[in-house]
Amino acid sequence: MFYDEALETMTHETRQQLQLNRLRETVRYAMERVPFYRKRFEEAGLDAVAFDQLEDIQKLPFTRKSDLRENYPFGLFAVKQEEVARIHASSGTSGKATVVGYTQEDLDDWAGAVARGLVMAGAKRTDLLHNAYGYGLFTGGLGLHAGAEKLGMTVVPVSGGNTDRQITLIEDFKPAGICGTPSYVLRLAERMEERGINPRTTGLRYGIFGAEPWSEEMRRTLEEKLNITALDIYGLSEIMGPGVAIECPAQQGLHIMDDLFITEVIDPSTGEPLPEGMVGELVFTSLKKKALPIIRYRTGDLASITRETCACGRTTTRMSRITGRTDDMMIIRGVNVFPSEIERVLLKQDGVTPHYQIHLVKRHGLDAIELHVELEEQTQQEAVMRTVCEAIKSECLISIEMICHPQYGVSRSEGKAERIVDRRTETSDKEPV
């Protein structure tokens, strides 16, 4: 089923021409309205007519998160404040918040993209959607809400938290779909089991999960516990919010909204473009945004892309699921490792729940890992510790110290799961296993 079949199945050549036309307009618009981009482009000797083919986008300088912070709050906006219909912002926990704005036209485009994505995921206009994403300055809740309403769905705007109340609403309202962070929806399923409710009997058909990294092993856990099809959604506020890309039930990559964005994959070290199929850093250029046009934004997310036609019949560019982030990479005694790699190995093991934390600590002046793991009841701790440590050493090439906790011994989150805890200011002489 398609939301806009002509748009979603257009030929590669037609789509490229559409993107090229919109790229020229975006460059012209940004030069006229955003002093930051005007200065950058003039320094590079560029103007809008300099683009004869999409590959010419590589002439443009990158935009980074630091650019948004240095121009806080509204320095990169292209319209006056009275034209801005809504503002979102990051939490700012690692520095100044990144502030983004939307005109009404931007909001309409965003809602349309999410509506298109929901149909890709298998949603129907007649469905009821339980929305457990947080509402507020975070883009997740309002982004999914507006797209679902655009499609004509009935939306239950639950937001995060109040777990028992959410379970009651799921039981009473019988939603077809649920969306939220995968770690929190897993918590909902666990709480159902604690209350003697079988989460497989709720009537849910599909779940749309994002806002935090999650592995194929986590997908299988969610699908088994809730009897659903678990689908990935991707977005970030600097680009738009949720709905930049989403999986279809084929689960062979996330379909990118190519009419709204140009996607590149670059070597994160050199900035040079990488060919299709190779994992690198995702870079996005917006093609229609009015309040905050964004050009060659380095996301820090690592993935690959393909332009092969999907089994669902769509010809849009697809991105792989995120394999990690450039700023999440840990270097443990000379070995590069991402949290997603540890999760993939961990969740293959019997007797381990999907709840864990990676604690970064110091051992004799070097970075090391304490892996805090939660065990199911009646699990033999020593056997699991030996198996997990050996598997991580074999597949991730690092040694870890494993700390076992009983069920519910690892803290739960009502939003994004806290997977990495940095304790490197502490001191210890323990050696990893």
UniProtKB/TrEMBL annotation:
SUPFAM superfamilies according to UniProt: Acetyl-CoA synthetase-like
Entry EC no(s): 6.2.1.30
Involved pathway(s): Aromatic compound metabolism; phenylacetate degradation
Pfam families per UniProt: AMP-binding, AMP-binding_C_2
AMP-dependent ligase C-terminal domain residues: 334-424
Residues spanning the membrane: none
Keyword Ligase on entry: yes
GO molecular function: nucleotide binding; phenylacetate-CoA ligase activity
Catalytic class of the enzyme: ligase
Alphabetically ordered keywords of this record: Ligase, Nucleotide-binding
Domain AMP-dependent synthetase/ligase: 79-284
Gene Ontology BP annotations: phenylacetate catabolic process
Xref: InterPro entries: Adenylate-forming_Reductase, AMP-bd_C_sf, AMP-dep_Lig_C, AMP-dep_synth/lig_dom, ANL_N_sf, PA_CoA_ligase
Described purpose of this protein according to its UniProt entry: Catalyzes the activation of phenylacetic acid (PA) to phenylacetyl-CoA (PA-CoA).
Similarity field: Belongs to the phenylacetyl-CoA ligase family.
Name this protein carries in UniProt: Phenylacetate-coenzyme A ligase
Gene: paaK
